[in-house]
Amino acid sequence: MPPVAIVGVKFLNARPLLAGLEAGLPAPVPYTFSVAEPARCADLLREGQAQVGLVPVGALPQLPGIVAYPKLGIAARRETTSVLLVSRVPLAEVRVLAAHTASRTSVVLARLLLKAKYGVAPQVVPANPPVEAMLARAEAAVVIGDPAMAVDGAAGLYRCDLAAEWMAWRGKPFVFAVWGLRPPAGDAVLPLLEASYGFARQHWEELLPQWAAAHGASPARTRDYLERRLHFQLGEEERQAVEEFLKLAAESGLVPRREGGIWHG
């Protein structure tokens, strides 16, 4: 049996899920591990170059044959400071939206919120940080991950934290990413995914300053971010939130409808 290819996300918010994989924990089957931006993780899974990937939930309808592991992911019930809609103008006046190509989910969420709350449906143009370059070609920009944390609090910009806005709108946590897997190869490493997060919890105090240094954040901010703003174990509320988000996105024509169930097991 060839090694199971696992791909994770290279942002700070994923490090707790990846800790054991990065440490090379043993598994029942051979595996390889690499990291990429969220959208690229989905592409690798779709193309068959990976059998397991930490993927944006908005990519699930476009991943036939891929199911989501329902117990682990990246979720939030409050401001994250790492998934932002920033704008030079009031949000009701946004006509062009620069979309960070690293995550399609955040762009879909921003478009849903702009339509529902502000009544606008801006043209979307692909772009990448820095945010100054993104805002040079659009009134507003969606920026995620470490680049978003770098611009959080920047003066002179309207700022919308997308997770907090979703929570206020729908009353549920927002799930940004889940482990997607292609059975049967992906099934064999499910215990490894659980063990990887367990490794992070076991070695948390040792790993936290390492993560902070690697991503250019202070230890205090890293602790606040990973302990207070995000959570990684998913339950029924998170699963319902994923299904509601995908339903709203499909009804708005932002993603295709998914045929069949999305959850593993």
From TrEMBL:
Any GO molecular function: hydro-lyase activity
Cross-referenced InterPro entries: Menaquinone_biosynth (IPR003773), MqnA (IPR030868)
Keywords, sorted A to Z: Lyase, Menaquinone biosynthesis
Record Pfam families: VitK2_biosynth (PF02621)
Catalytic activities: chorismate = 3-[(1-carboxyvinyl)-oxy]benzoate + H2O
TM regions (residue ranges): none
Protein family membership: Belongs to the MqnA/MqnD family. MqnA subfamily.
PANTHER family recorded: CHORISMATE DEHYDRATASE
Protein name: Chorismate dehydratase
Organism: Thermoanaerobaculum aquaticum
Lineage: Bacteria, Pseudomonadati, Acidobacteriota, Thermoanaerobaculia, Thermoanaerobaculales
Gene coding for it: mqnA
